[in-house]
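Can't attach files on this board, so I'm pasting raw text. These are the components:
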Amino acid sequence: MLKLKNINKTYQTDKIETIALNDINLTVNKGEFISIMGPSGCGKSTLLNIIGLLDKPSSGEISISDQQITSYQDKVVASLRNKKIGFIFQSFHLINDLRVIDNVELPLLYRDISAKERRSLALAALERVGLSARTTHFPSQLSGGQQQRVAIARAIVGKPALLLADEPTGNLDSHMGNEIMKILESLHQDDGTTIVMVTHDEEEAKRTQRIVRVYDGQLVAATEQPLHLDATA
Amino acid sequence: MLKHIAKLTWNRRNENVLIIVEIFITILVLFGIISMLASTYQTFNKPLGFEWQNTWSIKLTPSTYQEKGTDRTIAQIAQALRQRNEIDKVTLSSLGLFTSGASTRGEDFNGKYVSYLLTHFSLDSPKDLGVTLVEGRWFGEQDLGQNYTAVMVNQQFADEILAGKQAIGFERPYDDFIIRIVGVFKDYRHRGHLRGSMPYMFYGHALESSQVSILRNINIAFKQPQSPAYEQKLREILQRIAPNWNFKIDNLKDLRQQQINEFVTPMMILSVVVGFLLLMVAMGLFGVLWQNINRRTKEIGLRRALGASEGSIQAQIIGELLALTLFASLIAFALLLQIPLLELIEVVSWTNFWLSITSAVSVMILLVILCAWLPSRMAIKLAPSDALHYE
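---
Top answer:
Structure tokens for the assembled complex are below.
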């Protein structure tokens, strides 16, 4: 599903070269749910951005759904992000001036599908996260947990092959965080969605199949979890 | 996408008020400038109604204001000039060409107060000046010794003041005598290219008449162009007849050019001021749009993460601003439409209105696209990962 080979990322200023990622090799199988952990500033978000084609590696190769990314031309990566990747962010990133249903429809605006089909897919996604009754609300009228569910609905509405979650529970209390984890687990278990999640929470990480640890821009360990979930489901 | 843009623009109407107001005011300013320019251009290009090429004007000033025999002296001067081989036509009138002076008369006409311009001529002068006759006839000997005074009016007078009445033969009391319209001419804009048409009336006087004393402007049309040196010769001819009189001699070409220059110079200064004003408006708009787009950097990052290409983001930003421009234009249109509807400002005719509103909105659209292009370009050049975390 996802293959990173010798990925390096450096940030260059006039005098200093900062190595953000150093020779990262990672394979995520189809239907796998993994978590990336590490201290702040270790490069895990950079890694997630590179996986999500939001940033370009300085060197190395990436393959998503067996398709190697050879061009970072805007139209090419935009189309790949739109069709193959779903994003969930820590701070939800909902557009406050759009109703819930319109927020969920956003990724579909960049596909060639009818308004009727967009609406139908968005309603189905909202139903999947249990927010069918909130379609006409604005984000500011929802709790943090509900907002993150809207963000999850937006991430899954286009049926992406890969779901990337950047600390999805980071802005939520433990109760709401647990609700979000349950939805992610359900997406993985019931729909077979491949999920890569960055987290600081050891307990949440333990609920995934594999923990990948990053330290100073390098993968230092990958821990297989006791299989409470079936990785090939 | 259009529905999405409309929805987003409507939901953000409160935040967009400042931009809408700025665009609205700019459209009003542009409309004012364009309609003024268009009106001036149209007025300038309308026919003057007389011929001025190869013609000199002589303004006569008797030695004293109430000098006896002025009428005879003027008739002698006209006669002497007509005998010159190099001179083709000599015309006499009470008002000089390409001068701002005008004789205006206002009166009740069929229960409506009207005003019109008035000039006195020697009998042949309108025809010799190249005025175009539309209906009726020129002044002639047959008008002398009658119980009426022959007048001619322009087409605008016939259309607006007589309003459907038969112009030729129309009579009415005028002070202590009767005037009769004997001819209708097309137009006569003696004040030059920059003044619009008005209803106009000509009075005709025989050279033998005592009224000739008011005809102190003589225009002489030459058969061939004359050099400036001819002025001295002309002055000598005139001073032989009226040694104590003053003669101001000008080539109508120079008077016309002088009049245009007097208009163009302040207009050029004004256009520089207007240019600066527009630049300030553009910079203000640019600043507001920059701030607006900057505030949406995270949203732009999000949209790119969700699959929007750089082009579609830029198209959306510009599309949203065009939607605001359309909204502001509709308000401006509704307001400005009242001007021709209620005939509030003379220069804003219907033709002018459509031209000015279309041009103002087009310029505004261009300005908005230009002002939105750079900030939107900069916003999309930020990597989506950076845009998402932009503060």
